[in-house]
Amino acid sequence: MSERIKIEILSALLLFVLAFSVFATVNTYKAVQALQVRNHDVRMGNVSTIRSWMTIPAISRIYHVPEDYIYRSLDITTPAPYHHVTLYEIANRKQKPVNQVIYTLQHAILLYRKQHPGIPLPPRAKRFSNKGQLPVVERAKL
């Protein structure tokens, strides 16, 4: 094999690796941005962030809704067996689509907020309440 062919093959492989690296970097950047947006939505209490892998105690803490209210909204009379069970498993036990269980929870949380308007925002959500910007801290006058 001649030197020229070896250099062309190595150059082609180098370009392929470079293109793959750029592709991976762009996808990683987009994934980080999506994660930041979803994290902000969770901190703001957006109910569209409820997922099938979540448990009732986690949903109760994140959205500031009592666990017993959530269990009642899902027609669960004995919550003990469901304490560390995901929404996906609850849907399977109740023989309902998981999307229906999630929709029921979303509706119940929004209804609870309407009935209890004094519920505070999550602690970090207050910090970003002015369109995602950090609060302005004024310098003390000397």
Written account of the structure:
The protein is mostly helical and 142 residues long. The chain has helices at 3-43, 56-63, 67-73, 87-94, 98-115, 123-127. The longest helix is centred in the N-terminal third of the chain and has 41 residues, at 3-43. It is elongated, with a radius of gyration of 24 Å. The model is unreliable at 124-142 (pLDDT under 50).
Rg, nearest Å: 24 Å
Number of helices: 6
State the share of residues found in helices, binned by percent.
55-70%
Shape: elongated
Count of β-strands: 0
**What is the beta-strand fraction?**
under 5%
**Quaternary structure state of the chains depicted:** single chain
What keyword list fits this structure?
2 domains, 142 residues, elongated
Task: Itemize the secondary structure elements and their pairings.
Elements: H1 3-43, H2 56-63, H3 67-73, H4 87-94, H5 98-115, H6 123-127
Helix pairs in contact: 4-5
